Amino acid sequence: MSNLGVWENAEPGVKRCILNANGGLMMMEVHFEQDAEGYQHSHVHEQMSYCLKGKIAFTIEGVETVISQGQTIYIPSGARHGVKALEPSALLDVFTPIREDLLKR
Fold first, then answer.
1. Rounded to whole angstroms, how far apart are CA atoms 103 and 43?
2. Fold of 7-103
3. CB 3: neighbour CB atoms within 10 A?
């Protein structure tokens, strides 16, 4: 069973919705309340995140980069990363290959 198009809680103050998953790509929208965190983790998937609104601090392999509306960041396969919303924010995340671990929840 798939949760495509369904909003779900990810972490406290963080909700996500998988918008599409086809071929080798998956697109997901993620909303953050101010000060909400996406906990440190890693996965084999490559990821690009586009900031739809707000300001988010990404920590990738111990290096912090802040992006704001209209900016994009790349996360390589296997890189340990997490985020913190510096204000109410939203991201558009793209993964390759598809995150089957999220799709089948």
1. 14
2. Jelly Rolls (2.60.120)
3. 14
Question: Mean pLDDT in the chain?
Answer: 95
Which two structure tokens, joined as six digits, stand for 70? Answer: 């209209």
Low pLDDT (below 50) residues in the chain:
1
Question: Phi then psi for 9, rounded to 5 degrees?
Answer: -75, 135
d(CA 56, CA 43) in angstroms, rounded, equals: 20
Q: Write down the pLDDT at residue 2.
A: 66
- Strand partners of residue 63: 60
* Residue given tokens 């793209």 in the structure block: 94
User: For residues 93 and 38, is the Cβ–Cβ distance under 8 A?
Assistant: no
pLDDT at position 92 is 98
pTM of the shown model? 0.94
Half-sphere exposure for 42 (CA within 13 Å, toward CB): 9
Residue corresponding to tokens 């972490």: 11
Domain ranges of the chain: 7-103
